[in-house]
Write a structure and sequence with these properties.
The complex is a heterodimer of chains A (about 110) and B (about 110). Chain A is an all-beta fold. Chain A is built from no helices and ten strands. In chain A, strands 1-3-8-7-6 form a five-stranded antiparallel β-sheet, with no helix packed on it. By secondary structure, chain B is mostly beta strands. Helix content of chain B is about 0%, strand content about 50%. In chain B, strands 2, 4, 5, 6, 9, 10 and 11 form a seven-stranded mixed β-sheet that branches. In chain B, strands 1-3-8-7 form a four-stranded antiparallel β-sheet, with no helix packed on it. In chain B, strand 4 and strand 5 form a beta hairpin. The N and C termini of chain B lie far apart (about 35 Å). Classes of the chains: A mainly beta (about 110), B mainly beta (about 110). At the A-B interface, strand 4, strand 5 and strand 9 of A face strand 5, strand 9 and strand 10 of B.
Chain lengths: ~110, ~110
């Protein structure tokens, strides 16, 4: 059975304190892995797609990496505006364009 | 200004009533999706459509129905058969092919009492 686990469930950082969020997946075949940011009461916002192990993508203070079994979202010197829930979602081969979402990591960045 | 619109933002209904949630996109995307989000759970796929006049059940389709008569529109009906309809409903769209990231609308919060 395809499974996606995100850890930690919640993370509190001080401004400037770097950290990483984890997305572990067990799927029959990975077509791509997606990262989204979601603010309370809003729809998820697309951040990155990773397609193969070793691939990295960056956007401002965020960098996403991918291995064969997990993906990391590294946050460097976060600011309060980075506070949000971060969702990962593998796309599994043979399932068209369907995504399987994890439950997310709720990040809070304080001054 | 391209994007996905969902209406209304908040919706209240009495138990036993059917209700239809609207989703429109002007991104010229072929595929559209409906998800449900509950506290502490990931997004769960209700229905999806990759082409006009065709759609497939997702993981939790029971108690829901959809139609795809136009490329731009993918309305979701929550029927009285849905046992726990109160939730946050999200619509998304994507291209079909090599670049298929999904873009989401702002969501509709449905409360059934």
């Amino acid at each position: 059975e395809d499974q996606v686990t995100q850890s930690p469930e919640a993370l509190r950082l001080q401004e400037g304190e770097s950290s990483s969020l984890n997305c572990s997946y067990t799927v029959s075949g990975l077509r791509g892995l997606f990262w989204y940011r979601q603010d309370p009461g809003k729809g998820p916002e697309f951040l990155f797609t990773l397609y193969s192990a070793g691939e990295e993508k960056e956007k401002e203070r965020l960098k996403a990496t991918l291995t064969k079994k997990e993906s990391f979202l590294h946050i460097t010197a976060p600011k309060p505006e980075d506070s949000a829930t971060y969702l990962c979602a593998p796309s599994i081969t043979g399932t068209a364009s369907k995504l399987t979402f994890g439950t997310g990591t709720r990040l809070q960045v304080t001054l | 200004d391209g994007g996905i619109t969902q209406s209304p933002k908040y919706l209240f209904r009495k138990e036993g009533q059917n209700v239809t949630l609207s989703c429109e996109q002007n991104l010229n995307h072929d595929a559209m999706y409906w998800y449900r989000q509950d506290p502490g759970q990931g997004l769960r796929l209700i229905y999806y459509s990759q082409i006009v006049n065709d759609f497939q059940k997702g993981d939790i389709a029971e108690g829901y129905s959809v139609s795809r008569e136009k490329k731009e529109s993918f309305p979701l009906t929550v029927t009285s058969a849905q046992k726990n309809p109160t939730a946050f409903y999200l619509c998304a769209s994507s291209m079909v092919g090599t670049s298929y990231e999904q873009y989401f609308g702002p969501g509709t919060r449905l409360t059934v009492t």
